[in-house]
């Protein structure tokens, strides 16, 4: 019998990704392997959401963003979409105790107005109840598409220019970042995708310009806290250069750690 490696002890808490984004993929395939309907996989995926959320909070990650429902997901069979919306409504209400216990703030990004009214109301209530929590921000990307996000940001910037609130020279990286749904959080340092797929599927396209990507064969309902810690350990083995050379990164590290006079 193979002994399971515990990765938590291997994590360097001085080098944590401040923001982790996760594409939760494989619920349907997991359910099919069990001989069940796809929604059975989504229901069991809630446990993995709790594992990832509590695991991030436990070690000190400040921001976690979960790709819960994309704009393209509306094209799935109506029965599945309806079941997903009902599951979302029930889960949001049930998980408020977990959020409060762990001092976690709930945030939501995407076209929220396209969600059923009952879901919007439940989301608003939990966001209000957790708004003062400070340990970590959990963001759910719901009815979210990065291309749509960029279109809305472009419209906002164009309107500001038309109304002479900004000039052409004012349009830069920061202006665009401040016009996105994620304006109040840092860009993801690490993106995890389950189920063995190797793409980002219209998720945080602008924000993930320099994000480290981690792919695992695990299907989402199988994803555990230890799997999260394993991904973080691999992230910590990578050198994030942001276009610079290794020598420049090392020199900067030495300079930043010189004793202050």
Q: Please indicate the percent range of residues in DSSP E strands (runs of 2 or more).
A: 5-15%
What count of helical segments does DSSP give? 9
**Rg estimate, integer Å:** 20 Å
H/E element sequence: EHHEHHEHEHHEEHH
Low-confidence stretches: none
- Mean of residue pLDDT values: 92
What does this structure look like?
The longest helix has 22 residues. β3, α5 and β4 form a beta-alpha-beta unit. The protein has 261 residues and is of the alpha/beta class. It has a six-stranded parallel sheet with strand order 3-4-2-1-5-6, with helices on both faces. The protein has nine helices and six strands, in the order βααβααβαβααββαα.
Characterize this entry briefly.
The chain is 43% helix and 14% strand. By secondary structure, it is of the alpha/beta class.
